[in-house]
TrEMBL record:
UniProt KW ATP-binding keyword: yes
Chain ranges of the Asparagine synthetase domain: 101-232, 251-346
Gene Ontology annotations of biological process type: asparagine biosynthetic process
Example of a GO cellular component annotation carried by this entry: cytosol
Pfam families hit by this protein: Asn_synthase
Gene3D superfamilies given in the database record: HUPs
One of the record's GO molecular function terms: ATP binding
InterPro entries per the UniProt record, alphabetical: Asn_synthase, Asn_Synthetase, Rossmann-like_a/b/a_fold
Name this polypeptide is given: Asparagine synthetase B
Alphabetically ordered keywords of this record: ATP-binding, Nucleotide-binding
Length: 363
């Protein structure tokens, strides 16, 4: 009935309106109502009478908003916000703030059960390398076209960390086959969603085929720790409304529920359960008080997270650049190429979206 936490913990979190009760996120049915944690780390759909963890589990189901309880009142289904993202005071002690991040990250990644059914999605960046460091016996996987940045970076990082790396080499046939499956899982055909979801789906599909049930990922690190270029100088970046690094970072964090819903549904459709230690409540709680200069500067992003990794990971891995998965894998580039080859030219509105729709429709 609940995923991610036991009923007693969630019941206390509801009663106390505690948004970070020490879990990795939760969702499900509790006392005749539906509950979904503050960051939406577990997708949830439907009504208290007809619900499930995917849209397919309940016909016409809509997602329960993150941080809400969905319940019946006076014969109607209503959503009631119970949890909001905490807004702690900005830390004025850099050493203490960095120590809290390092402690939270290490505790979270080393607490992952490294049983034989676990693999790691590994791009060679500091996020996935920290996750991999917590489960030293788990194999690492990366997906990308042969000349992709992520493949080269993962090989370098795996060699530096002495890790077993398995490369899922992508090609056009793999993309065209997987597009309808990704669309079926997400319910979306826009190029951005599909471009992000495809490499996740294809690496997870390989992981499942190799006999692993769980896939550990570095999800959440970019959002929590200032990993996006748009948070560096937000006052001059029209991609965010905020004008400070901290404000822009919180704005990005609020986008997590939609992203996590997409990624979780895709990974489950491929046959694995995602494991996201960098999204644990303890890591979220350590990230939120960080001042702007420990999040992102013109010279460095994810400052505090890299400090937490120093001394544990090899220096080249700590400082490694990371591209968004759709670009680092070259999936976005190759989707555009396939669309143009199929007659959907760039001068056309939404040319990649229309190509994706053609694959789904079989036209």
């Amino acid at each position: 009935m609940l995923r991610g936490a036991d009923p007693a913990t969630v019941r206390r979190a509801v009663e106390r309106a505690d948004p970070l009760p020490g879990t990795h996120g939760f969702a499900g049915a509790l006392d005749g109502r539906l509950v979904r944690d503050v960051l939406g780390r577990q997708p949830l759909f439907g009504t208290p009478e007809n619900w499930g963890f995917s849209p397919d589990d309940a016909a016409g189901a809509t997602p329960v908003p993150a941080g809400h309880v969905r319940e019946r009142r006076n014969g109607e289904t209503v959503d009631r916000r119970v949890w909001s993202l905490p807004d702690p005071a900005v830390s004025t002690d850099d050493a203490a703030a960095l120590a809290a991040v390092e402690r939270a990250v290490r505790e979270s990644v080393t607490a992952v059960d490294g049983a034989a059914d676990l693999a790691v999605a590994f791009s060679g960046g500091v996020d996935s390398a920290l996750v991999a460091a917590g489960v030293p016996d788990a194999p690492c996987y990366v997906a990308g076209f042969p000349d992709a940045h992520d493949v080269a970076a993962a090989r370098d990082a795996a060699a530096a960390m002495d890790r077993d790396l398995r490369v899922v080499e992508l090609d056009h046939d793999a993309l065209e086959r997987a597009v309808p499956e990704v669309v079926a899982a997400t319910g979306r055909t826009d190029a951005m969603t599909v471009g992000i979801a495809l490499p996740l789906y294809l690496v997870a599909e390989r992981v499942a085929a190799d006999g692993f049930d769980r896939l550990a990922l570095g999800q959440g690190a970019d959002e929590l720790f200032g990993g996006y270029a748009k948070v560096v100088d937000p006052a001059d970046d029209d991609r965010v409304d905020a004008t400070t690094v901290r404000g822009a970072t919180r704005e990005v964090i609020r986008s997590l529920p939609g992203q996590l819903e997409r990624d979780t549904l895709v990974l489950r459709a491929a046959g694995v359960t995602p494991v996201t230690p960098l999204l644990s409540d303890r890591v979220v709680g350590a990230a939120l008080p960080l001042p702007g200069h420990l999040l992102a500067t013109p010279d460095e992003r994810k400052v505090a997270l890299r400090r937490a990794a120093a001394g544990w990971l090899p220096e080249p891995v700590v400082g490694a650049d990371k591209k968004a998965v759709q670009y680092g894998s070259l999936v976005s580039r190759e989707l555009d190429r396939l669309a143009r080859q199929a007659g959907f030219k760039r001068r056309m509105d939404r040319h990649v979206d229309r190509y994706v729709e053609s694959l789904v429709d079989g036209t």
